[in-house]
């Protein structure tokens, strides 16, 4: 007889859903750290946490959002550890990733990765969650543990910062951002 609390998945169902979400979790980890080995470590840390707390997952929630939230927290934990130690910065890791990247249009990839590396971690993460993972604002807020209004404003500022970085300008270069009227 299988006795479970309401809202708690059976172990086999949880594992199947976890395996289905793994590619997106790995992709998100890679976009956070720009290094394949570090991304694999982050993915593994998130999976270990998820598996050790699988019984706390409420099936009424989206498993991917829960996993991305775990990965986000694991990434923050790792950043805190690295701040206490002297280590290579994200630019060095980005350079290593770019020198080994093979894409159909390497120039575009280099420009985008360089622009993303120039963004603050807050801006980069919100762009990746909303743009790459296509999470709704409420899901982004849940992953990052911030209000929806903060998600919306941070995403707007992140898009502007990315556009300016791709154009080769900064806020200080361009003064106040100019709004375009669409007629």
Structure report:
By secondary structure, the protein is an all-alpha fold. It folds into two domains: 85 residues, Rna Polymerase Sigma Factor, Chain: A, CATH 1.10.1740; 55 residues, Arc Repressor Mutant, subunit A. 70% of the residues lie in helices and 0% in strands. The protein contains nine helices and no strands. α1 packs across α3, α2 packs across α3 and α5 crosses α8. The longest helix is centred in the first third of the chain and has 23 residues. The radius of gyration is 19 Å and the shape is globular. The N terminus is likely disordered.
Cα-to-Cα separation, first versus last residue: 65 Å
Task: Pick out the low-confidence regions.
Answer: 1-6
CATH topology of the largest domain: Rna Polymerase Sigma Factor, Chain: A
Helix content: over 70%
Rg, Cα atoms, Å: 19 Å
Which CATH architecture of the largest domain is right?
A: Orthogonal Bundle
The number of helical elements comes to: 9
Report the structural category.
mainly alpha
> How many domains would you count in the coordinates?
2
Q: State which percent range the strand residues make up.
A: under 5%
CATH top level assignment of the largest domain: Mainly Alpha
Q: Main beta sheet, described?
A: none
């Amino acid at each position: 007889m299988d006795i479970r609390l309401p809202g708690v998945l059976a172990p086999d169902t949880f594992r199947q859903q976890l395996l289905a979400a793994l590619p997106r979790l790995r992709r998100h980890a890679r976009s956070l750290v720009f290094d394949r080995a570090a991304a694999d470590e982050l993915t593994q840390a998130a999976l270990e946490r998820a598996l050790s707390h699988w019984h706390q997952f409420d099936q009424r929630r989206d498993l991917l959002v829960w996993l991305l939230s775990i990965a986000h927290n694991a990434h923050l934990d790792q950043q805190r550890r690295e701040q206490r130690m002297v280590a290579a910065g994200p630019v060095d890791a980005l350079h290593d990733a770019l020198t080994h990247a093979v894409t159909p249009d390497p120039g575009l990839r280099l420009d985008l990765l360089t622009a993303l590396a120039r963004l603050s971690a807050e801006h980069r993460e919100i762009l990746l969650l909303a743009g790459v993972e296509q999470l709704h604002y409420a899901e982004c807020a849940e992953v990052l543990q911030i209000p929806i209004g903060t998600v919306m404003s941070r995403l707007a500022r992140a898009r502007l910062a990315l556009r300016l970085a791709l154009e080769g300008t900064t806020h200080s270069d361009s003064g106040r951002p100019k709004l375009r009227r669409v007629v």
